[in-house]
Amino acid sequence: MKVYGGSTTETEAETATATSPEQVKVGIAEHSVASGEAVLTTSGLGSCVGVAIYDASASVAGLVHAMLPSQDEMDETGNDAKFADAGIRRLVTELEREGADRSTLRAKMAGGSDMLDFSEDGPGIGARNVEVGRRTLEEFDIPVVAEDLGGERGRSLRLETASGDLVVKSADRAQRRL
Fold it and tell me: What is the pTM of this model?
């Protein structure tokens, strides 16, 4: 029952929580794998790239929010998810551990904007994140089936594990379901 201010009674709130899918927040330079009806979300994608990989037949999916293109370009080895290449490799390994079949994995990508591009020689960090992400997915023969990349806008993502749908929100255009 609704009460003033739009709140619900305690029983309705408990029911809504019990029937809502689990929501997992994936922060910058983080990744997560989930199965069933879980929903993975991330926000703050500017030049960062979000890569969603899923196996619809196994109902398992993962999301990485990578800041930088390649771990090989840095002298850092601690956090794979910080890098597009290492983060995708880690995600594929964990998806397979959870029952995904590499031959049925599909990817969707979003982000890679050039919002604050200061590079003078060659592509900016956003474009490089996308390039390395694509190249790493190709190493695993994982096709990119949908994308929302580049431009000059930030994005937030919502990955619905059961379907593999990736919902992309940005301030300057309507929500997209990939």
Answer: 0.84
